[in-house]
Amino acid sequence: MNRTDLGKAEEIAERLRMLILNGHLSLGAKMASERELSDQFSVSRMTIRHALELMEAEGLVSRHPGRGTYIGGIRERVLVSQGREMQQTREAPSIAASELRRSGSFIKDMKRIGRKPQVQFIEQPSLVPADSQIAQSLQIQEGTLVLKRYRLQLADNLPYRLIESYYPSDLFGELLTINIGEKPLFEWLQERHNLRVAHAQEILLARLATQNERQLLRISPTSPVVSLERTVWTDTRRPIEWAQIIAIASLYLFTYEYDIFEWNKEQKHDNRVQVDQSTPQ
Q1: DSSP E strand boundaries for the chain
Q2: How far apart are CA 59 and CA 53, in angstroms?
Q3: What mean pLDDT, rounded, does the chain reach?
Q4: Highest-confidence range of 7-21, 91-105, 163-177, by mean pLDDT?
Q5: Which positions ≥6 away from 55 have C-beta within 8 Å?
Q6: How many angstroms separate the CA atoms of 248 and 150, rounded?
Q7: For residues 203-212, b (16+ Cβ closer than 10 Å) or e, as one string?
Q8: 202-208: which pairs have CB atoms within 8 A and are 24 or more residues apart?
Q9: What is the pLDDT of residues 193-206, one digit of tens each?
Q10: CA distances (Å), 152 to each of 31, 119, 213, 249, in order?
């Protein structure tokens, strides 16, 4: 696609975006076909397809091969920050904080803003032998039984993320026989075993979704996802969760703040050298 067609695609995406924001295109409605939009805007279908890809990346529409494109609305974005609540001023409201810092906040915050959160288990929770990666992450022997939970989180029937997580069976195995309802898992852990989660590490990778992930998240092959590999430790430094989280990229904002020690160190050194050089010998 040349620069002119790219500019037209961005212009069309902006015009359609405004129709959605102004309520002229309603949530859940099926959009006109690529051919119809091509005729309407007097551009090629390739240009229309790229405009829809831009909108899909923002979470404005969802594209389903063989079925068409549907208005997805501006879903609330989950704001993942480093150690603090963050405020943002964007068109779409955000969900401050994340499950990483306050267990269960996704469900609680969705309810707070009037959304209906849901959890769908892709597989029934079960005990499975730990492979080498899980064993290393949970610091257990390979083949040791762990509790596996594979689920999809939604709000108002719209998918947000897939979570495949593993837990030591000696602590969590009994969850196969009891129902804790919507109680956050780590809250239950503290009440049941007097263990408090204290630290989490995540590794983030932006990529395209696999075919299975696309089907479960209802996204097109061009819609990016964020893959997070998470390990959680208790205050006794025992790892009690290893999880792979696949999130729709357009529904998450990641913010990081940190001090820059090395630069300050170099600056102090440079200042000291300048002072030494200016000091009479």
Answers
A1: 61-64, 68-71, 77-81, 94-95, 117-129, 145-155, 158-168, 197-208, 224-234, 239-248, 252-255
A2: 10
A3: 80
A4: 163-177
A5: 13, 16, 17, 61
A6: 16
A7: eeeeeebeee
A8: 202/100, 202/228, 202/229, 202/230, 203/228, 203/229, 203/230, 204/228, 204/254, 205/229, 206/249
A9: 999 999 999 899 98
A10: 26, 6, 10, 15
Q: Which helix (H) or strand (E) holds 3?
A: helix 3-21
Structure tokens of 78?
């989950």
Compute the radius of gyration of the chain from its Cα atoms: 24
Query: Three-state SS for 2?
Result: coil
What's the rounded Cα separation, in Å, for the pair 230 and 203? 7
**DSSP symbol at 9:** H
Per residue in 114-168, pLDDT (tens digit) is 778 888 999 999 999 999 999 999 999 999 999 999 999 988 777 888 999 999 9
Q: Which two tokens stand for residue 55?
A: 């909108």
One-letter amino acid of 203: I
Eight-class DSSP state of 30: B
| % of the chain residues with pLDDT over 90 | 37
- Let me know the angle formed at the C-alpha of 202 by 231 and 192, rounded to the nearest 5 degrees: 35
3-state secondary structure of 143: coil
The alpha-helical segments, DSSP class H, found in 83-210 are: 105-112, 132-138, 169-172, 185-193
d(CA 137, CA 130): 10
